[in-house]
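3.2 Worked example (two chains)
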Amino acid sequence: MPDFFLDRIINLEWDATEFSSLVVDVTKRKGGSIDGVSQTDLRGGNAINVASALAVLGVEVTRLFPQSIGLQQIKYHFRKQLH
């Protein structure tokens, strides 16, 4: 089964008490964001990781799923391997 996920890694600079206080503040104002959170997006999913490893080894890989926004994300994450 083809799968592709975007894994988001976040790095919180606060301890549990500070972070809880920030969440309470957002809740009190009925929504919003917490600025200053370092984030990294990584490609994930078994099928896409295997395809990536095979492509690095020089194997030609073919996608088996329809056109979608996911395809655009895959092209972005594989841009160095596709050229």
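3.2.1 Second chain
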Amino acid sequence: MNLFVKKPIHQLIASADEGEHKLKRTLGPVSLVSLGIGAIIGAGLFSLTGIAAAENAGPAVVISFMVAAFGCAFAGMCYSELASMIPVAGSAYTYSYATMGEFVAWIIGWDLVLEYAVASAVVAVSWSRYVLSFLHDFGINLPAQFAACPFDMITRPDGTMSHGIINVPAIFIIVMISILLMLGIKESARVNSIIVVIKLAVVLIFISIGYHYIKPKIMFPFIPPNTGTFGEFGWSGIMRAAGVIFFAYIGFDTVSTAAQESRNPQKDIPIGILDHCLFVPLFIWRSQRS
């Protein structure tokens, strides 16, 4: 058997547009841009920023965002070119199948499964913590063991330590989003656009209010000195933070995955990818400065 057999592009495109299970081409450029922005302004802005700043870069996390955005722009250009040539679902798996063969595509496919599984888990757990904090403000406190996984240690009311049981809020949001996706791409794209508008409004409000509280003298040293360990502050910390933050720029991969559901993929996919790869990072960088 030839493990590196390739599947011609014309065959990939033909198989995508035939059969009873073919995807409906309903997404336009606005929906694709919203899809990418929704993936970026989420894990990157609300979950990873504090971790990268506290453990790796300090105030210089803004530089980390720009470094990650620089690399993201080039990767996004590559993805936009490939998605235009091969407007089929599967993203890097499909591109690998057409260029490097079935075995490499198989490896890339499992990498994508792992990538999206980890990304979804991170966002779900972060969402769970925000929900717990929100409910706590209204006097509602969920049992700690039902808001943590079995690998997390929690403190019981009597002061003893024990393992969590299951993260109910994280599972709840995963199930709800999965149901939304099963309803159809048009419905999920509409809900995503509404959520993106809300998130952008929140970020704009934060920038407009926080901008007046910037005190440069307090932020010095802007690049904290390295602690003696690679990746803990200093320039090595900035680069490590950039690697962590790049995880948040997975939006361009999400847009390319929707190529088979785009009405005009040769035109709309590059717009959807490059718009958020080039402009959204600047928007995020500005919010970090605030």
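3.3 Remarks
Residues 92 and 270 are 16 Å apart (CA to CA).
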